[in-house]
Amino acid sequence: MRDIHADRILILDFGSQLTQLIARRVRECGVYCEIHPWDMNVEALTAFGANGVILSGGPESTTMTNAPVVSPEVFALDVPVLGICYGMQAMATHFGGCVEGGHVQEFGYAEVRARGHSELLRDIEDRVNDDGHGLLDVWMSHGDRVTEMPPGFELMASTHDLPIAGMMHRENRLFGLQFHPEVTHTKQGGRMLHRFVRDICHCDGSWTAGNIIHDAIVRVREQVGDSHVLLGLSGGVDSSVVAALLHK
Questions:
Q1: Residues 94, 142, 169, 180: which is the catalytic one?
Q2: Is 169 a catalytic residue?
Q3: Chain segment 37-66, per-residue pLDDT in tens
Q4: pLDDT, tens digit, for every residue of 166-215?
Q5: Among the options 182, 194, 201, 203, which is catalytic?
Q6: Active site includes 180?
Q7: 133 is catalytic
Q8: Which of 54, 66, 61 is nearest to 100 (CA)?
Q9: What is the reported pTM?
């Protein structure tokens, strides 16, 4: 069987309380992922072998001194990158865009209009308006906003109060969303993340419960061979799962 960890997504954490939820959504797509800090060691970053990178949100402001930044090595990996909320702002700052404190802060529901027929949002919509434009129900939580996109980036989404709610660089496969696709309040968020990790990053979705069990059993057999295992069974979930796998 093909290595179920071969296709993998790297999530760089900028301090968002929703970062673990991003990982959960990626794993629900059948794709292996790991969370690492935004200032992950460069050697480890390269050695990880990511098919794609997701930049999480965070509580900081890119306009402040010593704000967390995206390492240039992330973009040197030449894989698709998705920036969410602060991640989008950090991406914009890195490439020469402009981020400012929002005159209108947004927290809660927003209606987004998809623009530019992007690879990420194409044919993903909650409804269509009278002009034939796709609309999305999403969840916002931000104060700062991108007011000027970097050179080479195109508009991907907007709201009534937020002219740049999403941006993209087609050639380099870079995407930024000001809203949060990982929360259930963004109704089509799961489809967006599925599109990113499965279609854009070309992960095959083999990291499933059944394959994880099979992989674990194979690894145990390789390690134990004809020997025996002494298991301390507490009755908790972890040791009970280990006992079930060892029995198989």
A1: 180
A2: no
A3: 999 999 999 999 999 999 999 999 999 999
A4: 999 999 999 999 999 999 999 999 999 999 999 999 999 999 999 999 99
A5: 182
A6: yes
A7: no
A8: 61
A9: 0.92
